[in-house]
């Protein structure tokens, strides 16, 4: 089942703050390196948070590289992702980049600078795609936001693409489900009033799956309200209001893979002002995206019972509970989602890099 990540509702309004950030990053990078090796001495100063912030990535070469050209690039989107039509954005409004010309009209296929193919819409077409004529300079971009567990036939995509675009940090074009933004000045965060214990919103309920089994164990020890198909009804526009009343939110991923941290964390938990209890990749992986004291990981506990006990204690200890929100004085979670924004990330990337020869040889080996 595809998740429902990119509805118009969540299309982020990104401010062009990356320039400032790059500067800040370099100013702090040295102190951060020291800090990273001395993590136990962490304080709550803004520079301590740099590692969780998105950076201009190494993929783009030097962060100071000038734009490749002023020519307007044409990007052909091979299919609407999952058939979902959306309105292309003017990328210059989202990123510090010239606009690209986007089209889904395939008569551009011999003229486009790049072609974005969404895995779930093309995975059966490997052979046909391999036979298509293509311009020597044209770059094909493999795009996927689903986890490897929900990405069939990856082998058919080997030796076909020039660039990868996914939630994986080591993608050529990194398209995270969410990221943190540094506030220009510290701001107190007010925690929404809490009247309930634990919430979980789940649409793809698979009995016997790891997360359902964990939930079944957990609910023996602590009340958990489950929303979604087959459970308590919840409409999208009531999501934040509903979840914000809970002390904790189960941000349980449907499968465990490196960097696969989805809107369940960013949108459902963090944007609702609750503490995420995460089940997904290991804690170290989450800590590449978030401060360690912003979430609770199920792996931190020997059993669901022990986790439940910790949650009970925390909910009764206001001061300790509030500590999970201290980072919010400096950082704001923003949703990285919206198809229009993701394709603009490709536009941004292409404007900044030379079209040198590059092939993704074995996608199925990398995307696991
Ligand atoms: C993009 O810019 C053009 C020209 O300024 C404008 O006509 C168009 O409505 C804009 N599109 C969006 C989605 O904002
Ligand atoms: C696609 O582009 C071609 C060439 O520019 C044009 O003739 C055709 O009408 C376009 N098709 C659609 C559906 O817009
Ligand atoms: C893109 O990948 C294809 C298929 O592997 C390859 O033939 C082509 O030369 C590559 N193009 C560039 C610009 O790297
Ligand atoms: C890709 O990697 C997998 C796993 O190592 C291997 O089984 C397969 O043969 C490789 N395929 C190609 C085309 O290199």
From TrEMBL:
Q: Which UniProt keywords apply?
A: Glycoprotein, Glycosyltransferase, Golgi apparatus, Lipid metabolism, Membrane, Signal-anchor, Transferase, Transmembrane, Transmembrane helix
Location in the cell? Golgi apparatus, Golgi stack membrane
- Which PANTHER family would you find in this protein's record? 4-GALACTOSYL-N-ACETYLGLUCOSAMINIDE 3-ALPHA-L-FUCOSYLTRANSFERASE FUT5, ALPHA- 1,3 -FUCOSYLTRANSFERASE
Catalytic activity line of the entry: an alpha-Neu5Ac-(2->3)-beta-D-Gal-(1->4)-beta-D-GlcNAc-(1->3)-beta-D-Gal-(1->4)-[alpha-L-Fuc-(1->3)]-beta-D-GlcNAc derivative + GDP-beta-L-fucose = an alpha-Neu5Ac-(2->3)-beta-D-Gal-(1->4)-[alpha-L-Fuc-(1->3)]-beta-D-GlcNAc-(1->3)-beta-D-Gal-(1->4)-[alpha-L-Fuc-(1->3)]-beta-D-GlcNAc derivative + GDP + H(+); beta-D-galactosyl-(1->4)-N-acetyl-D-glucosamine + GDP-beta-L-fucose = beta-D-galactosyl-(1->4)-[alpha-L-fucosyl-(1->3)]-N-acetyl-D-glucosamine + GDP + H(+); a beta-D-galactosyl-(1->3)-N-acetyl-beta-D-glucosaminyl derivative + GDP-beta-L-fucose = a beta-D-galactosyl-(1->3)-[alpha-L-fucosyl-(1->4)]-N-acetyl-beta-D-glucosaminyl derivative + GDP + H(+); an alpha-Neu5Ac-(2->3)-beta-D-Gal-(1->3)-D-GlcNAc derivative + GDP-beta-L-fucose = an alpha-Neu5Ac-(2->3)-beta-D-Gal-(1->3)-[alpha-L-Fuc-(1->4)]-beta-D-GlcNAc derivative + GDP + H(+)
What's its EC?
A: 2.4.1.-
Query: What protein name does the entry list?
Result: Fucosyltransferase
* Xref: Gene3D superfamilies: Glycosyl transferase family 10, C-terminal domain
Native source species: Meleagris gallopavo
Looking at the UniProt entry, the stretches that span the membrane are 20-38
Q: InterPro entries annotated for this entry?
A: Glyco_tran_10_C (IPR055270), Glyco_tran_10_N (IPR031481), Glyco_trans_10 (IPR001503), GT10-like_C_sf (IPR038577)
Question: How would you describe this protein's topology in the membrane?
Answer: Single-pass type II membrane protein
Cite the Fucosyltransferase N-terminal domain residue spans from the record: 71-178
Q: Does the keyword Ribonucleoprotein apply?
A: no
- What Gene Ontology biological process does one annotation of this record name? lipid metabolic process
Family the UniProt entry places it in: Belongs to the glycosyltransferase 10 family.
The metabolic or biological pathway listed in the UniProt record of this protein is: Protein modification; protein glycosylation
Output the Pfam families linked to this UniProt entry: Glyco_tran_10_N, Glyco_transf_10
Organism lineage reads as: Eukaryota, Metazoa, Chordata, Craniata, Vertebrata
Q: Provide one Gene Ontology cellular component.
A: Golgi cisterna membrane
- Where would I find the Fucosyltransferase C-terminal domain in this sequence? 192-366
A GO term, aspect molecular function: 3-galactosyl-N-acetylglucosaminide 4-alpha-L-fucosyltransferase activity
């Amino acid at each position: 089942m595809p998740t429902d990540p990119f509805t118009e509702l969540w299309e982020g309004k990104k401010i062009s703050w990356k320039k400032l950030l790059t500067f800040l990053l370099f100013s702090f990078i040295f102190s951060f390196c020291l800090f990273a090796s001395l993590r136990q001495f962490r304080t709550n100063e803004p520079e301590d948070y740099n590692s969780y912030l998105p950076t201009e990535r190494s993929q783009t070469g030097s962060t100071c590289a000038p734009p490749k050209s002023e020519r307007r690039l044409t990007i052909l989107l091979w299919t609407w992702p999952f058939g979902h039509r959306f309105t292309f954005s003017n990328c210059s409004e989202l990123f510090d980049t010239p606009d690209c010309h986007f089209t889904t009209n395939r008569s551009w296929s011999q003229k486009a600078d790049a072609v974005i193919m969404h895995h779930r819409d093309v995975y059966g077409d490997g052979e046909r795609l391999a036979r298509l004529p293509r311009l020597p300079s044209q770059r094909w971009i493999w795009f996927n936001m689903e986890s490897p567990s929900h990405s069939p036939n990856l082998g058919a995509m080997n030796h076909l693409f020039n660039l990868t675009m996914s939630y994986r940090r080591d993608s050529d074009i990194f398209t995270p489900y969410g990221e943190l933004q540094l506030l220009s000045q510290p701001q107190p965060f007010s925690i929404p009033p809490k009247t309930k214990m634990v919430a979980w919103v789940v649409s793809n309920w698979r009995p016997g799956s790891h997360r359902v089994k964990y939930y079944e164990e957990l609910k023996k020890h602590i009340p958990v309200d489950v929303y979604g198909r087959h459970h308590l009804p919840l409409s999208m526009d009531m999501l934040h209001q509903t979840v914000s009343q809970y002390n904790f939110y189960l941000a349980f991923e449907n499968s465990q893979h490196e960097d696969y941290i989805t809107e369940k964390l960013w949108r459902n938990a963090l944007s609702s002002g609750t503490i995420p209890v995460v089940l997904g990749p290991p804690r170290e992986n989450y800590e590449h995206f978030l401060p360690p004291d912003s979430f609770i990981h199920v792996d931190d506990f020997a059993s669901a019972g022990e986790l439940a006990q910790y949650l009970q204690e925390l909910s009764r200890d206001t001061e300790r509970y509030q500590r999970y929100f201290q980072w919010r004085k400096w950082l704001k979670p923003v949703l990285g989602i919206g198809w229009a924004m993701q394709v603009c990330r490709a536009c941004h990337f292409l404007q900044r890099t030379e079209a040198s020869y590059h092939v993704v040889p074995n996608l199925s080996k990398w995307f696991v």
